[in-house]
Design goal:
six-stranded antiparallel beta sheet, 17 strands, 3 domains, Beta-Lactamase, 19% strand, binds P-hydroxybenzoic acid, Arc Repressor Mutant, subunit A, alpha+beta
């Protein structure tokens, strides 16, 4: 990397840079730093872009599934996480070390995290959070200034003179850490160079309330087989339980044992298994351009698409490989890579390109906290609008279903259903798809102990009959329940599966039984319902690639 003297102005974009790609990234960063959502006028202010430009950028990002537009507001959408997923899959650290970190958090009953160096910051790539409400907890993709963290001194111990110069420059230019929206204002000064020297000597580092009063951490380096620091492993606690030094005494031996296991996992890692290429992207952007015309900025879509060429087994790509993976012309891919390199999202070394941790700054922190009901809400709303009936999401809770999301268009029930409402699983369509999705043994066990009471004259109460009904539900992939929960009510439900194929929830549409016959319900509503569930599953697969998505 070229070194810049402390007083030199930041270099402007190279002549080949793609301006619309730079603008699109500015919008995504503005939305990320704002916590995921802004009005379009606030986007205008945050980015300095003209309103007409903001509108076109937002329309393009919406078409890509990266933002959602609701009236005047733009909100980051789950699909955007595919960019950060490309980076995390390429570096493999969460896949190879995440389970080790989770086991350590269980053993210590403290939060544990993995962070990588990102310029003069650190970025989290994995979080096993046990944090009690006392202090703020960081998200995957959050950027912290090196000097206020445990991991920072371990990365800085390997810095070149140029990297130190850049750090000093940033400290002088941004004394209050405004460039780090994830951290509270600086409340004390500690000699960083001295901390780095000590970390180099001791092989560990402490964060004694450098982020905020009360928050303490102890950190050790995890080395890659080539000897460089691959990432930093931290145990994090609060002064109500530990001082910085008592945390070190309590956890350092176990941190070191975990590092041994992690370094072995890196040495003995199985060869990466590259997934399928993102398909026909160039054709998709071309088609969108034809459809949306001036409202679609093709060069922005193509530029972002370049990031998705990377992934497991595709961590270092040549220009030709990027062009091939995306279906873009070489010249187009080249200009996108030059732009992304200029912005710090890609590094180039000996003709190969790699993603940098900064890619996580495109939406990952706010989106990594998304829950299943939040993922489902817009899809349920669209479904309810299409079928003109209420759409809901529920989870199985003991022998009941419990509503976790609901979009009501009319009241078809005598009781008012809200999030949290429970019904017996056996008499509801959502309950039946979830019971049908259970492993055989568990399904039989539940049926054996369930008390099947008749809620209407039509409720199936015979265990053998219910078992046969569930077999049919499992075979057909949906459940239709007619007036078994309440007279006059018909509902149809499908399962919602996670990326491993496990049924984690159910989605349904409920209606007055006079509105449609059962046959019409299957012919008209089921395809729409299944399509909505497919969209929920697709989003859940992207969000759940590297995070555990809360089901409620
Ligand atoms: C965290 O994982 O939240 C964490 C790690 C190291 C720090 C501070 C916070 O120094």
């Amino acid at each position: 990397m070229p070194s810049t003297s402390p007083s030199a102005p930041p270099p402007g974009p190279p002549p080949e840079a793609v301006a619309p790609l730079m603008r699109g990234i500015a919008v995504l960063r503005g939305l990320t730093d704002a916590g995921g959502s802004l009005s379009l006028s606030a986007v205008e202010r945050a980015t300095g872009l003209a309103r007409a430009t903001v509108d076109r950028v937002a329309a393009t990002l919406a078409r890509m599934g990266y933002v959602r537009l609701d009236g005047r507001d733009a909100t980051l959408a789950p699909r955007l996480m595919e960019l950060g997923n490309a980076y995390l899959a390429a570096i493999r650290l969460p896949d190879l070390l995440g389970a080790h970190a989770d086991a350590l958090a269980d053993a210590l009953d403290e939060s544990v995290s993995l962070a990588v160096g990102d310029g003069d910051g650190i970025r989290f790539v994995h979080q096993a959070t046990r944090r009690r409400a006392m202090s703020l907890s960081f998200r995957i993709g959050d950027l912290l200034p090196v000097e206020r963290t445990g991991p920072g001194p371990l990365f800085a111990a390997e810095w070149t003179a140029a990297e130190w110069a850049r750090w000093r420059e940033r400290r002088a230019a941004d004394p209050e850490d405004r460039g780090f929206p994830a951290v509270p204002p600086r409340h004390r000064e500690v000699d960083f160079e001295e901390r780095v020297a000590r970390a180099r000597e001791q092989g560990w580092a402490l964060d004694d309330q450098l982020i905020e009063p009360g928050l303490v951490a102890v950190t050790v380096p995890v080395r890659a087989p080539d000897g460089g620091v691959a990432c930093a492993l931290s145990a994090v606690s609060h002064t109500s339980r530990h001082s910085a030094s008592s945390l070190r005494d309590a956890t350092l031996p176990r941190l070191r044992a975990a590092v041994d296991g992690m370094e072995r996992a890196l040495r003995e890692a199985p060869p990466p298994r590259p997934g399928p290429h993102p398909d026909a992207l160039a054709a998709w952007t071309g088609g969108s351009k034809q459809e949306l015309g001036r409202g679609f900025i093709e060069s922005l879509a193509r530029g972002l698409t370049v990031l998705t060429a990377f992934g497991e087994g595709r961590d270092a790509l040549t220009l030709s490989a990027v062009a091939e993976a995306t279906g873009l012309a070489r010249a187009t891919a080249r200009r996108a890579l030059i732009t992304l390199e200029h912005l710090g999202y890609v590094t180039a070394y000996e003709r190969t390109f790699r993603l940098t941790p900064r890619v996580l700054g495109l939406g990952y922190p706010p989106l990594s906290r998304t829950t299943l009901p939040a993922i489902a809400a817009p899809h349920l709303a669209a479904l309810a609008t299409r079928v003109h009936d209420s759409a809901s999401l529920a989870v199985l809770d003991g022998d009941d279903i419990r509503y976790t999301a609901r979009v009501a268009t009319s009241r078809v029930m005598s009781v008012n259903i809200t999030v949290g409402t429970r019904f017996p699983a056996y008499a509801t369509s959502m309950g039946r798809v979830m019971l049908a999705g259970l492993p055989g043994g568990e399904r039989r066990e539940r049926l054996a102990r369930a008390e099947l009471t008749a809620l209407t004259p039509y409720t199936v109460t015979d265990p053998a009959e219910l078992a046969a009904v569930l077999d049919g539900v499992a075979a057909r992939g949906y459940a239709l329940v007619d007036e078994e929960l309440e007279e006059g009510l018909r509902s149809i439900a499908v399962p919602v599966r996670d990326r491993a194929g496990t049924v984690v929830a159910a989605a349904n549409v409920a209606m007055h039984s006079v509105r449609r016959s059962a046959e019409e319900c299957v012919a008209q509503v089921l395809p729409e319902l299944r399509a909505a569930a497919d969209r929920i599953e697709a989003d859940l697969a992207v969000v759940g690639r590297f995070t555990r998505v809360p089901l409620e």
